[in-house]
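Table S5 (text form). Sequence records supplied for joint modeling of the three-component complex.
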Amino acid sequence: MFEEIPIKSKKRNELIDITGEVQKAVEKAKLKEGLCVVYSPHTTAAVVVTEGADPSVQTDLINALNRLVPVAGPYTHREGNSDAHIKSAIIGNSRLIFIKNSKLLLGTWESCYFVEADGPRQRKIFVKIIEG
Amino acid sequence: MFEEIPIKSKKRNELIDITGEVQKAVEKAKLKEGLCVVYSPHTTAAVVVTEGADPSVQTDLINALNRLVPVAGPYTHREGNSDAHIKSAIIGNSRLIFIKNSKLLLGTWESCYFVEADGPRQRKIFVKIIEG
Amino acid sequence: MFEEIPIKSKKRNELIDITGEVQKAVEKAKLKEGLCVVYSPHTTAAVVVTEGADPSVQTDLINALNRLVPVAGPYTHREGNSDAHIKSAIIGNSRLIFIKNSKLLLGTWESCYFVEADGPRQRKIFVKIIEG
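The corresponding structure-token record, covering 396 residues in total, follows.
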């Protein structure tokens, strides 16, 4: 099963919790066991599974990425978003989550996030669900 | 097929070779060709496939991550393990390995590791095997 | 379906566009919907999906990785390529791309690259295609 889910980001750098939307796609698929792949088709964004309980973890991740890959460069790309491309490559544009008993099998503290690195923008994610 | 494998880490930062355990899960699945996904359900740990021949490669990876993401911060999360959350996001919480002739298809120098970033702790990994 | 594709790198650090080769493997598989996994079996290389339109994005990624993980170290591994092992772990040795209507479902600006971090060398990638 394939699903496209729209996302609207509000800041340049932001983690957007997409766990609920991905879980809805899993429920639609009506399978018991499988693999769920969450994919961002954008080259200035990423997907990550990280702690959802304390929002300060999200802030720390955004700030750490900004320190490692400063927006100011130096870069050769002329669009002012080279940092976003590099963050996207480092975090990666997809994550895999297992499906068990028709639900996402996440760890106790895990949630799934869209990592916006060049917002605000209209975005989307692709979700594929494979039985097995 | 789905398998849960317990892991015991002994240090705060450590790479634990899980190739043998993952290979055992593949053998249990009794399929010829497929995809094996190794998943850490922890937000302060990761999974990586890297060189297994020389243990100094593991040391260098741990030290490089500590330089890039220092335990001292600055961070806003108050549990003293923000660095571990960030390392987990950067390395990623899963890896894919192909199965060929009922075995993990690893490169000559490749082994699969659990990346502990906030140990010592009792941990686990999930392994899913999909035919195809 | 499983396919092995040879790659020849020409520089120490280089992004090599493999989108066309991966697309050919997808066409051979003759399936409509599925998952394509691109895997590097090398511990000093990686796979990434990033912008393909402006080559300066590739240059910026290579330079940013060199700043984050300098070739000079300090490292304990004696082969002079610890930086390449670390870059491989950070970017990751595989990427997933969806297949829709028998084609790779890439975003508008996305291309798939082999990330050489210790070339020039004869290399290879593994491609697996799973229906679903």
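Note: Chain A has a mean pLDDT of 97.
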